[in-house]
Amino acid sequence: MSPFLRDVTLLALGVAAILTLLTVLGERARHKRPGDAGVGLFIARVDSWWAMAILFTLAMLAGEWAMILLFAIASFAALREFYTYAARMKADHLSLALAFYILLPAQFLFVYFDLPRLFTVFIPVYAFLLLPFVSMLRGSTERFLSRVAEMQWGLMIAVFCLSHIPALMLLDLPGHEGDGRGMLLIAFLVLAVQLGDLAEFYLGRRALGPLGRKRVVPGLSAKTWEGAFWGLAAAGLTGLALFWITPFGPLSAAAMGVVASASGQAGALVLRAIKRSRGLRDWSHLIPGQGGFLDQLDSVIFAAPAFFHLTRLWWMTG
Amino acid sequence: MTDAPLLKAPARPPAWRRFAARVVGHGIVFLCRAITAVHADWRGIEPSARQRVYFANHVSNADMPMIWSVLPQHLRMKTRPVAAADYWLRNKIRAFAGGEVFRAVLIDRRADQWVDDPMAAILQALDEGASLIIFPEGLRNQGPEPLQPFKSGLFNIAEARPDVELVPTWIANLNSVMPKGEIIPLPLMCSVTFGTPLRREDGEERRDFLTRAAAALLALKPEERA
């Protein structure tokens, strides 16, 4: 068994153990309090996590292309959620079609063909200049800047930032060329951020300490300072526990987990503000118990670019 | 509309064509869901096996496949759209889709070419146990108003078959998926909202009933977000 396969197997078993534990907890809670809405939501979430973990593991085993395809599909769904509620008019039809059918696939093809320069500038620079031009051609100036700004924002969040997750496979980690470590780095990022969010949600909102009642952003989210702290702590512990699948040492792995979770928690708040400004509760109904793809991926989307660049700058030059 | 001769509505097709129709039907459902992630909001009814007439707003040719796609399989098998013969019998592909995939109750809108009374075909389908999808605005709505005035068909059904539930069904956002004059459909999310069923009250006049039905349908329209 190759080291990569061994690590994937261990990781999958570990995740399966955690999910089994959560499933058992959920079922016991359902037995105690049948018909409780919160318990039902928890069980739906755990079921969705099972599905995601299985898909993710299969993609890791199938290879880089499957991982890129998986995130390209997620990106498509996220962009669709964003644009459905964006300021847009009929005049933007062609620009939006370009975003969905050309720019999005192109960005993920850059990952597949390992073209880091294009990957970095294509959406922030070229698409940024191209899309308002295409929208302008139809001659409609009503709310023009809002329309093109929201279009670009959707691309940046749902495609550009999100594509940094599979792009972790592009990083040539010294001493680990071509051994699939990049793929395990994705698992590391997603697990640290998700377990951080989980701890934040289920530990932080029980108001244990003096900071437990103090909201980070009153009026926007129920997130408390204590919850944020538990989230960071859980992400750090996850990082420490998973250091063996990364090129980092134990302490730097913990630090990377904390940074990813901090960035992710900030991102969840930002996307929540956008959602609130649209008057939405969830972006869609596509993931049972979670809402939409943007609801599920909000933290990871913000964490990915920070994680990507930190890994490249700090670790690879160090 | 031209007066070119229409194809004949097919009799019961051979087994391989029925199989092909089912495969194409599943393909259409998959396509609708993959592109628009269409979501059913069962606000006023449960998706149960009662006999119903779903009456919906009409902005696009994709309206009917949309409703058809969100119905659970066992309801879809029993639900037939009421559609225009002069559209669906225009060529062989449409005749296959309309007649065999959707099993549409085909009505000729060209009054001068009527062979049978259109109401007779609709009532016969109801008496055979089918649920129906109808668009009481008649033609597609391409104006600025959210709904056009209803034609009388809905009232005639309510009068002739008072036991059938008339379910207002609002299709949201499909207009932005493919606005008039565009060729490429955009993958934006759509929803289909089923409201509380309507019945004609005793002695209710045609116009009152149709106004009430239109209001019930319009009440399902989601708020505009900008």
User: How big is the Rg of chain B?
Assistant: 17 Å
Topology, number of strands of chain A: 0
The low-confidence runs of chain A, each spanning 5 or more residues with pLDDT under 50, are none
Give the averaged pLDDT of chain B, no decimals.
87
Radius of gyration of chain A: 20 Å
SSE string of chain A, helix = H, strand = E? HHHHHHHHHH
Descriptive keywords:
heterodimer, A: 318 residues, mainly alpha, 3 domains, 10 helices, B: 226 residues, alpha/beta, Glycerol-3-phosphate (1)-acyltransferase, 7-stranded mixed sheet, 9 helices
What does it look like?
The complex is a heterodimer of chains A (318) and B (226). In chain A, 74% of the residues lie in helices and 0% in strands. With 318 residues, chain A is mostly helical. Chain A has 3 domains: 62 residues; 107 residues; 142 residues, no CATH class. With 226 residues, chain B is an alpha/beta fold. Chain B has one domain: Glycerol-3-phosphate (1)-acyltransferase (3-Layer(aba) Sandwich), CATH 3.40.1130.10. Chain B has a 7-stranded mixed sheet, with helices on both faces. The model of chain B has no long low-confidence stretch (mean pLDDT 87). Classes of the chains: A mainly alpha (318), B alpha/beta (226). Chains A and B meet through helix 3 and helix 4 of A and loops of B.
Layout of strands and helices, then pairs:
The complex is a heterodimer of chains A (318) and B (226).
Chain A (H helix, E strand, L loop, with lengths): L2 H30 L4 H26 L1 H21 L8 H20 L3 H21 L7 H24 L13 H24 L20 H17 L8 H28 L15 H25 L1
Helix pairs in contact in A: 1-2, 2-3, 3-4, 3-6, 4-5, 4-6, 5-6, 6-10, 7-8, 7-9, 7-10, 8-9, 9-10
Chain B lengths: L14 H22 L2 E4 L9 E5 L6 H8 L2 H4 L2 E6 H4 L3 H10 L3 E3 L10 H10 L3 E4 L18 H8 L4 E8 L1 H4 L13 E4 L11 H13 L8
Parallel strand pairs in B: 1-7, 2-5, 2-6, 3-4, 3-5
Antiparallel strand pairs in B: 6-7
Helix pairs in contact in B: 1-2, 1-5
